[in-house]
Amino acid sequence: MNVKYGIISVAAILILFELVGARGYAASASRPYGSHDLKAESIFGKGKGDFDTHGIDAVRFPRSTLNLPRVPASVILAGRNGSSGSMNAMGSGEKRILVSVVLSAILPGMGELYLYGGSRNVSVLARVPFFLAAEGYFWHGYYHNHKKGKDYKQYYMDYADQHWSLDRFLIQHPCCDNLGGCTDYEDYNEHCQGEFNYFLYTPRDVDEEEYYENIGKYNAFVYGWDDWNDQPDYWTPHRSYYWELRKRSDYYLLKGDNNLMYLLVNRVVSMVDAGWIAYRINKGRDLDKGWSIDVKSISLTPSIIVGYRF
Questions:
Q1: Which span out of 49-63, 113-127, 236-250, 288-302 was modeled with the highest average pLDDT?
Q2: Residue 61 to residues 24, 55, 56: CA-CA distances in angstroms?
Q3: Between β-strands 301-309 and 51-52, what pairing exists: parallel, antiparallel or unpaired?
Q4: Which is deepest, 39, 50, 121, 307, by most CB within 10 Å?
């Protein structure tokens, strides 16, 4: 037991010696080189005198600044995690592409504006007003033409209600005249099939669109117009004017639908453009060179320009 305690005591003394010696060396390093007034207290000779360190100058290194290389924490972490750094960069690049494409799908030009915030490239920012202007122009065209087409539609429907009558049609149609008059449209549809100038009558409450189209389109229904007077070409003034109103309505409604298609095209172009720019940014390429997609106005017509800059 005494031997064990003795070994432990010796080990503790040696550890303490090392600690005191290290502090003494640090204190000596902080003093100017060449000074000989350094003394380290000996733990073995405490109370018997100090241990003189004058002769240690021969093993002391000249004072100088030791420049150690600095390694960024990101490099250390990348080394620990293997390829996590490159994976994070890849994820960030994919996120940039996804965000820019989604923003352009919501509002054309917003994807390019988002990418400009990171690249500060003027050519990227220059795309934004073109996409926004095209978006505003097409929306205005849709609402204007759609409303105008609907107005003309209501106008020709009111005009037909004033100048075309089913009762007049059932009396003046040649087939019904030979039958002594048709009691209703079902009587006409049943007995006049195969007769001259016959076409199936569709009531307004069954199919409103077909009703208003048929009474102006087919000669069989000319007998219902209030200005029918045995015209040889079957086109009375009221029928002709009614059909002109219908053509105007269809024209503006079609223009409105075309503007909806242009809105879709504007979004697709902006999405492709934003995705391509984000891809080139991720690759570290010069945005002023290579393939580009621009929207320009040529002869007051919005046009898509695909080019390549060297």
A1: 236-250
A2: 15, 14, 11
A3: unpaired
A4: 121
Q: Hey, what are 127's tokens?
A: 């795309």
Each residue of 228-257: pLDDT tens digit? 998 888 999 999 999 999 999 999 999 999
208 Cβ contact partners less than 8 Å away, ≥ 6 residues apart: none
DSSP per residue, 188-225: HHHH-TTSTT------TTT-HHHHHHHHHH-GGGGGGB
Q: Is 271 helix (H, G, I), strand (E, B) or coil?
A: helix
Concatenate the DSSP letters of all residues of 135-167 into one string: HHHHHHHHHHHHHHHHHHHHHHHHHHHHHB-HH
Domain edges within the chain: 88-144+264-309, 155-243
C-alpha span between 280 and 272 (Å, rounded):
12
- Can you list the pairs that 41-50 forms with residues at least 24 positions away whose Cβ atoms lie under 8 Å? 43/13, 43/16, 43/17
Q: What is the DSSP letter of 103?
A: H
Distance CA 233, CA 250 (A): 24
pLDDT in tens, 175-199: 998 888 899 999 999 999 888 889 9
Q: What is the pTM of this model?
A: 0.60
